[in-house]
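Example 9 (inverse folding). The structure is encoded as follows.
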């Protein structure tokens, strides 16, 4: 099954999905809107679209939500948004998808900073950086998760 990663921004929600074998992370179109409720409903729609796949291996089995804890390890305001999104998403998935989907909160410290730096190195315009930062952050969250999973 595939893994979907989510980076909840204040304005946009970035998404990335793995291949069925869990080796690569591909970005998905960014969703306009942030916050727990908008993001949870948007992610639910993405999971439901993959749930329609006839090949079970192509469905999403795990959703990774970026959890932006502070550098000292304490929860940030954005962490509370991620936690609420995870709660809502679990509830929505139980009601709407016929198979179990695991929802995991994952420490995503500095992924948005890394995404910004990467795009600066690529000489991306300010507009492109603004539009793609959450998408690239989701891809970095997913790549990190997949790499960690390979070594377990």
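The amino acid assigned to each position is listed next.
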């Amino acid at each position: 099954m595939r893994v979907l990663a989510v980076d909840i921004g204040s304005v946009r929600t970035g998404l990335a999905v793995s291949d069925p074998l869990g080796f690569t992370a591909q970005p998905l179109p960014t969703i306009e809107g942030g916050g727990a409720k908008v993001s949870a409903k948007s992610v639910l729609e993405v999971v439901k679209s993959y749930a329609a796949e006839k090949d079970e291996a192509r469905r999403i089995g795990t959703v990774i939500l970026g959890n932006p804890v502070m550098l000292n390890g304490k929860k940030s305001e954005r962490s509370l948004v991620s936690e609420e999104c995870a709660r809502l998403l679990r509830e929505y998935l139980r009601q709407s998808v016929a198979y179990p989907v695991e929802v995991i909160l994952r420490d995503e410290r500095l992924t948005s900073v890394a995404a910004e730096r990467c795009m600066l190195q690529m000489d991306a315009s300010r507009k492109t950086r603004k539009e793609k930062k959450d998408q690239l952050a989701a891809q970095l969250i997913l790549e990190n998760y997949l790499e960690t999973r390979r070594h377990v």
